[in-house]
Amino acid sequence: MPKEKISADRIRFVILHVFVKGYGIIPMDGFLKSFSDKYDRWREKGNFEFSSKVIPVKESLAARQWVLPGEQALEILKNARSFALADCLCRTQYARCRKPREVCLLIDELSDKEVGHDRARRITFAEAAEVLKKADEHGLIHMTLYMPGRKIYALCSCCACCCHDLQLILDYHRHDLMVRSDYVAVTDQERCTGCGKCVERCVFGTRSLCDGTIEFDSGACIGCGLCVSVCPEQATVMNLREQPEAADPDCA
C-alpha cells in the first residue's frame, strides 16, 4: 500500500505546533502578517474595533431564548442583499485539515465581486443552511468577518489550524481582534456523564475532564456552541451572557 504523501505545509504545522508552540516563539508567516498588519492599519484610522465575532451554532440555542436579529448566521443571510458561497481562503492557503473547504459565505458587495470573477457561486437560502449544518458537524466555528465601520463582508466557518483570525488569537494572543458571542455554555453536572466529547470539541481549551467531572472556565468561553451540539445527554445549553452593570454616574 503506497504511503500517504505529507505536504510541506503539514510538516511545518506539526513542527510549529508540537515542538515550537510550547516555547512561545512561533514565527508569523507572511499570510498571517498581512492580516495582522491590515487590522492594525484599520485601527489606526479609528474606524475599526474588531475583525470578527463568534456566532453560536443554531442547534445550540434553546427555542425559548430570544435571539437578537442578525446574531445568528441565518438571520445575517436573510438580511443580506445578496450572498454567495466560496472556498475558505485560509483552508485553501494552509490545507492542514480535511474539513469542508467550500464554507465561506460572502455578503453583498463582496459576493457580487467574487461571483463576477468566478471565484464564488450563488446558492439558495436552503443550501446556505445545509452548508452551516455541515460545518457544525465538522466542528467548525461560525464567525462574522468585519470591515471598518462594522460592516459584515463574510460569514465563514473556521478551524483553529487554518483560520487567520483564530491563529492570531490562539498563537499570538491577539484577543483584541475577536468579540465573543452574547452567549455562554452552561453544563448541568447531574446530567453530564463525563464522556469528554465537549472537551475534544472546544478549540479554546476552556473544558477539561478531571476524575470523570467536567471542569469549565466560563470566563474564557467564546460562546460558539459547538460543545452543546455534540453532547449526547443534552447536559450543556447556551445562556445569555451576563452583562456587567453600568456604573451609576451619580457615584462616579
Task: Kindly describe this structure.
The chain has 252 residues and is an alpha+beta fold. It folds into 2 domains: 29-179, no CATH class; 181-242, Alpha-Beta Plaits (2-Layer Sandwich), CATH 3.30.70. It is 32% helix and 19% strand. It has helices at residues 8-20, 30-44, 73-78, 89-94, 108-116, 125-137, 164-172, 197-201, 226-229; strands at residues 52-55, 83-86, 104-107, 121-122, 141-147, 151-158, 178-179, 183-187, 207-210, 213-216, 236-240. The strands form 3 sheets. The chain has a 7-stranded mixed sheet with strand order 4-2-3-6-5-1-7. Helix 2 (30-44) crosses helix 7 (164-172). It starts with 7 loop residues before the first helix and ends in a 12-residue tail after the last strand. Residues 1-7, 17-23 and 59-71 have low confidence and may be disordered.
What is this entry, summarized?
With 252 residues, the protein is an alpha+beta fold. The protein has helices at residues 8-20, 30-44, 73-78, 89-94, 108-116, 125-137, 164-172, 197-201, 226-229; strands spanning 52-55, 83-86, 104-107, 121-122, 141-147, 151-158, 178-179, 183-187, 207-210, 213-216, 236-240.
Q: How do the helices and strands line up, and which of them pair or pack?
A:
Elements: H1 8-20, H2 30-44, E1 52-55, H3 73-78, E2 83-86, H4 89-94, E3 104-107, H5 108-116, E4 121-122, H6 125-137, E5 141-147, E6 151-158, H7 164-172, E7 178-179, E8 183-187, H8 197-201, E9 207-210, E10 213-216, H9 226-229, E11 236-240
Parallel strand pairs: 1-7
Antiparallel strand pairs: 1-5, 2-3, 2-4, 3-6, 5-6, 8-11, 9-10
